[in-house]
Amino acid sequence: MTKILMVCLGNICRSPLAEGILKSKLPSDFFIVDSAGTASYHVGSTPDKRSIAVAKKYGLDISHLRGRQFTVDDFDNFDYIYVMDESNYQNVIKLARNEDDKNKVEMILNLVYPNQNYDVPDPYYGGDQGFENVYKMLDEACSIIAENLNQNG
């Protein structure tokens, strides 16, 4: 069983979207996809209503997801850890205990734009279009992740 973790700041906007998108592209009997935030602001909260709405627009239901904070144990529990931006990357890497932990962590848009370290912008303080834009970015990256995992997995 291959396990993939999506990480953003609060685990209510970008990472639950990424979780829902990737889950829809992978067979659940071979893959586990989860999400977490580097901050504890929204532990136990549902995703932002705008994330839920944009996911629903594309046929995905993420309303049952609940926010949780990234922990050191996640390095043991997951094979791949995809972060949404440079700040999240630094926060996760700070918790890494060794090179094996660090090697699991990658900026998600590097799958689309190799070695560019582009951020998935946080849509929280913006309008609905920001969530739409983030969905499209994550859908493209998750398609590549799913293709790679299905070939190698």
Entry keywords:
153 residues; four-stranded parallel β-sheet; 6 helices; 4 strands; Rossmann fold; globular; alpha/beta
Folded structure, characterized:
The N and C termini lie close together (9 Å). Helix 1 packs across helix 6 and helix 2 crosses helix 6 (128-152). This protein has a single domain (2-152), classed as Rossmann fold. It is globular. The chain is α/β, with parallel strands linked by helices and 153 residues long. The chain has six helices and four strands. The mean pLDDT is 96. The chain has a four-stranded parallel beta sheet, sandwiched between helices. 43% of the residues lie in helices and 14% in strands.
Question: In summary, what is this structure?
Answer:
This protein is α/β, with parallel strands linked by helices.
**End-to-end gap:** 9 Å
- C-alpha-based Rg, rounded: 14 Å
Biggest sheet overview: 4 strands, parallel
Write down the overall mean pLDDT: 96
